[in-house]
Amino acid sequence: MSEISQDKPTIKLSRRERLRRKALESVERERSKALERLKARSDYYPPLDYFVSLFEGPEGLKGVAQRTGREVAITMCLQAPIELFWALDYQPVRLRSGAYAAARSAPSRLPALMCPLLKAILGAVDSGSISMGSLAIIPTTCDWTSGLASLGGFKDFSGLGLEIIEFPRRKGAARAAESWRNEVRGLWTFLTQRASKRLGPISLKEGRVRIIEAIKVIDRAREAFESLISLRRQGQVPAHWFSLIADSFYLDRVERFTEKVNEASELFRGFKPYAEKGIFLSGSPVFFPNFKILNLLEEARLTVLADDLCSGERILPKKVAVGDDDLEALIDSLAESVHEGCLCPIFTENKRRLGPVFEAQNQAPLKGLVFNLLKGCHPYEMDWLTLEEGLGETIMRLIKLETDYTSEDEGNLFTRLEAFGATL
Ligand code: SF4
Fold this sequence. Notes:
alpha/beta, four-stranded parallel beta sheet, 50% helix, disordered N terminus
C-alpha cells in the first residue's frame, strides 16, 4: 500500500500576492503598535475604550458596515454634504490612512513626492487593508485627490458607483456657487437612485423630511464635538485623544459617536488644565496611526489647544438653518454651507484660513503655531505663505515642519520643536 502524504498541498502564491500579504501584515503591526502606545498612556481611561476599539476591530469597510448595519459610501475630503448620506441611510466613510507601511507598499510607479496621505490610501487599497465598497464620491479638491479616480483600486469603480463632484475654487462668485449647487443636486439624484433599491422610491416630501432629520442628528454631534473643543481650549483634552476621537467620526453611527464624545468630555472635565506651552496646530491632516507630530509635540512639552486640520476641529460641517425650505432649497443650503464654510487652502483666495487662528487666540492662551506640512502637499505648502504673512505681525511665533510618514526625521524635528518651545 502506498503511503499517503499528510502534508497539506502547498499553494504557490504569486509574487504580487506575497507582497500584498506582507504589506497587510506590516500595516496591522503598525496599527497594533500605535494602539499599544495609546493604551499605555497615563491618561487612558475606560470612557476612551470605545474609540480605541473602533481602530482595533475590523477597520475596513466591512467592519463599518457590520457595526452600523448600513451601506457604506466612501467619501474623500469633506466637501460632499454628509447630511445627504445619512438622510438615505448610507454610512459615509472618509477614505484616509496614516499608515507608513501602507504608503511604502503603494505601487512603485507613483511619483516619489506624492502626498503621503494619498499614497497610503492607494497602498492600503492595494494591500487590502482598506477594502473598496461599491460606491465612492470624490470631490475635485486638491490635484492629488482629483487625480485619484484614475489610479489604483479606483479604476475598478468605473461603471459601478463612482461619482466625481466638481468643487469650484472661487468663493463668493455667483457662477461658481451656482455650479456647485448643481453638483450637489446631482449628487442627491445619484444617491437617491441607488438608495431606492433599498428604500423604494423617495418622494420630494420624504426626501425633505429625511434631510431635516439628518441635519438634526449632525447638529447634536456638532454640539457634543464643540463641548469637547471648549475643554480642549482649557488644555483638558490631550491631543492624541482628540485626534483619535475626530478620526473615529466615520467609523460608527453618528448617534453613537455623539453619545461617546459626551462621555469622553465628562472624563476630560476632570482633567487638570494644561500646564505646558499652548500651541495651534495647522497644516496637512493627521490621521491614525501616524501620530508622529503629536508624539513630538508632547515630548517637546507643547500642548495643542486648537487646530484647523481637516482631520481635527474641521471634521463637522457648519450649522445649516432649516426653515420652510423645499427639498431643492434645503439641498442648496447644504451645498452653500459646505462651499462657503470650507477652510481647505485650495481656493483662489485663502486669507479666511487666518480666521480660526484669531478666533482661537481669543479663546485660549496660545503662544505659537506649529505648521505640519506633508511633503508633496502643495495646497498647504502655499497656505504656509499666507499664514506666515498674515500672522507675522501678531505676537504668535510660528514654525513649519516638513515631514512625511517615515520616522527617520524624528530626531531633527524634535530638536527644532525643542528650540521653538524655548522661544515661547
Ligand atoms: S490637501 Fe494635501 S494632504 Fe490633503 S489630499 Fe491634498 S495633497 Fe494630500
